[in-house]
Write a structure and sequence with these properties.
The complex is a heterodimer of chains A (331) and B (144). Chain A is an alpha/beta fold. Helices cover 23% and strands 24% of the residues of chain A. In chain A, the strands form three sheets. Chain A has a six-stranded mixed sheet with strand order 7-8-9-10-12-11, with no helix packed on it. Chain A has a five-stranded mixed sheet with strand order 2-3-4-5-6, with no helix packed on it. In chain A, strands 1-14-13 form a three-stranded antiparallel sheet, with no helix packed on it. In chain A, helix 6 runs parallel beside helix 7. Chain A starts with a strand and ends with a helix. Chain B is α/β, with parallel strands linked by helices. In chain B, a hairpin with a 4-residue loop joins strand 5 and strand 6. The radius of gyration of chain B is 23 Å and the shape is flat. The termini of chain B are far apart. The chains are: A alpha/beta (331), B alpha/beta (144).
């Protein structure tokens, strides 16, 4: 799959899959006066100059889920933590885009899942970990328990000159952001110049990807209209348990794979059912995704080559081998 | 004297009849108010002859399914969908048919709908209701 991107963009964000998550590198592309102007403006606005860094997006571990689509529970999540910790270039930031836990009507049980998630995520050797909720975390209680464990469900912060915005499109129980958060968003970004690099991270897609599967946010268009004046917007989300890229004139949207099980391509199947677990290839659908940038055919453009690579069973040999893991399951 | 007694008795009977009529009328009004706007339409569908108003289609939501899970409507035919929940709050969403409702337990929700496009439409519960929420949906078929 090839997709042209504008090389004149002021922030280059390249994603490289690391097996069970995506490692992003963010670096300013200095090309004459506009970029210099942007850096100066950002430095004035938030006291930080934009400098290269890497970060990781992890999504949908559903801690507490147990069932045929993934009998291994938290193993994929725990492995992802190990992979991130072993990266030669340690990321400065990890973003979790929701469904940290699988919901439970028993509050104590759900709290136990929140605690277990926090314990596993706490093994990450990164300076900063940020979260947004998914509907399984916050849909039943309006985000009350999520806030007790992880803090606010929407907020923003600046990191090395990039403005990050956490949007909550699950706590109102319906797939929506809501008028209060929209008003907050307008106020939050008002101080930035048109060229400011902005990364929004949220749970559900902010566009109509597949409404019949609840892959949408009903006021997602309103969010994108607020962001439309800005040239450099990237949206990272989860929820759909599979890769997806969607480019519009003003923004690029990227979905992360899940850390529990995968959903199929909605264009190819009628029913929303998880891809069945395959003992012979237990992590096939949670495999490696690599993105490499190449010069494009047209001047000032580049192409992204995306390659899917199956996660090797060799990584699970020895005492942590897949057969040993399966011994502890019902399969 | 006999005539006077007869007149008096007639007046008493007439008065009692009037009181009975007034009492019955008041009871009927109270009942209508107590049940809100959902009941008159439901009663109308039961008591009035066909073709006198929109057809009423009842849909019940209960985690994690709608019953029935498929209904068939006719393009251009006005219908009233009467939605109820038997457990928790559910949603009822189908963008193309402009359906976006919340179904609260104990409070029937009515939707007046005249479908303008034939086809098969998947309607979902879009109000998170628990672990099986992601697959709670039903089909609305609109025939030409």
């Amino acid at each position: 799959m090839k997709d042209p991107i504008d090389r004149r963009g002021f922030l280059k964000i390249a994603g490289v899959s690391i097996g069970l998550g995506t490692l992003y590198s963010a670096a300013p592309v200095l090309r004459g006066n506009p970029a210099t102007e942007m850096l100066r403006a950002l430095g004035e606005k938030n006291g930080e100059m934009q400098t290269p860094f890497t970060f990781v997006q992890l999504s949908d571990p559903h801690v507490g889920f147990s069932g045929p689509p993934d009998p291994l529970g938290t193993k994929a999540f725990e492995h992802a933590v190990e992979v991130v910790n072993a990266l030669p270039q340690r990321p400065e930031l990890v973003l979790f885009t929701g469904d940290l836990t699988h919901d439970s009507e028993n509050k104590d049980e759900h709290a136990g899942r929140m605690k277990l998630f926090k314990e596993i995520a706490g093994r990450l050797k990164v300076p900063k970990i940020m979260y947004v909720p998914g509907e399984h975390d916050a849909g039943l209680d309006g985000g009350v328990m999520f806030r007790e464990f992880y803090g606010p469900t929407n907020y923003s912060f600046d990191h090395r000159g990039v403005h990050f915005i956490a949007l909550d499109n699950v706590s109102r129980a319906k797939p929506e952001v809501g008028p209060e958060q929209l008003a907050w968003l307008k106020k939050d970004i008002a101080r930035f110049s048109r060229t400011a690099p902005i990364i929004v991270f949220t749970h559900r897609p902010l566009f109509d990807l597949k409404p019949e599967w609840e892959w949408f946010t009903s006021d997602g268009d309103d969010v994108m209209n607020v962001l439309a004046p800005y040239d450099n917007v990237t949206v990272l989300y989860g929820h759909i348990h599979r890769d997806d890229e969607h480019h519009t004139a003003h923004a690029k949207h990227y979905a992360a794979r899940s850390l529990i099980f995968a959903f199929p391509d909605p264009e190819k199947v009628a029913d929303k059912k998880p891809i069945p677990f395959d003992k012979a290839h237990p992590f096939a659908n949670l495999g490696i995704r690599q993105i490499a940038e190449h010069p494009g055919r047209k001047p000032n453009t580049s192409s992204l080559a995306i390659e899917d690579v199956e996660l090797s069973l060799r990584e699970f040999s020895g005492v942590n081998g897949i057969q040993q893991l399966l011994k502890h399951t019902d399969l | 004297m006999k005539t006077r007694n007869l007149l008096l008795m007639s007046a008493v009977i007439l008065g009692m009849s009037l009181m009975l009529v007034v009492t019955l009328t008041l009871r009927a009004s109270t009942k209508g108010l107590r049940h809100g706007s959902a009941m008159p339409l439901a009663r109308k569908a039961e008591s009035q002859p066909p073709n006198s108003g929109p057809r009423v289609v009842k849909i019940m939501a209960k985690r994690f399914a709608f019953t029935p899970n498929q209904i068939t409507l006719k393009k251009g035919e006005p219908v009233t969908l009467e939605l109820t929940s038997e457990d928790v709050t559910h949603g009822f969403y189908m963008k193309a048919l402009k359906l976006d409702e919340v179904i609260v337990p104990g409070k029937p929700t009515e939707i007046s709908l005249t479908p303008q496009t034939a086809g098969k439409f998947t309607t979902i519960c879009d109000h998170f209701c628990g672990a099986g929420h992601g697959n709670m949906n039903m089909t609305i078929i609109v025939e030409e």
